[in-house]
Design brief:
With 129 residues, this protein is mostly helical. The protein is built from seven helices and two strands, in the order H-H-E-H-H-H-H-E-H.
Length: 129
């Protein structure tokens, strides 16, 4: 996760303007992108980006559960949101790609999926009392 977010070769771009590095209108750029013609490879990359943002945060609730022992929905979601916010803030501050509100939402959605998975596992595999 650290490598993908901070170190991959296409992350460093000092030439982006302020408004190109910060996207705060929910799904505006994604809808704008889909409204124009793109090759199959570009569309696959687009969807991989969306799915990747979700998948990247699915394991986070497992770490929170096993390290901190927390499965409280609110606590885990706040931790996921703040972690994602910190990533986006660092990306914006150090010109590492684009800080996007969509990523914040999709990362948090991934954490919700991970937390739901933990809840289902606990429900189905807890010994009866």
């Amino acid at each position: 996760m650290f490598y993908v977010v901070f170190l991959s070769n296409d992350r460093w771009n000092k030439n982006l303007l302020f408004d190109e590095r910060l996207r705060v209108i929910l799904f505006y750029w994604k809808i704008k992108y889909l409204s124009t013609d793109h090759s199959l490879i570009e569309l696959c990359t687009f969807y991989i980006d969306i799915i990747g943002n979700i998948l990247m945060f699915i394991p986070l609730p497992f770490y929170v559960f096993f390290i901190l022992g927390r499965t409280n929905f609110r606590n885990v979601i706040v931790i996921a949101f703040l972690t994602s916010f910190l990533i986006e803030f660092i990306q914006f501050s150090f010109h590492l790609g684009v800080a996007d509100i969509d990523d914040l939402l999709l990362n948090t959605l991934g954490a919700i999926i991970g937390l739901t998975t933990i809840k289902l596992i606990k429900k189905h595999y807890t010994a009866p009392r």
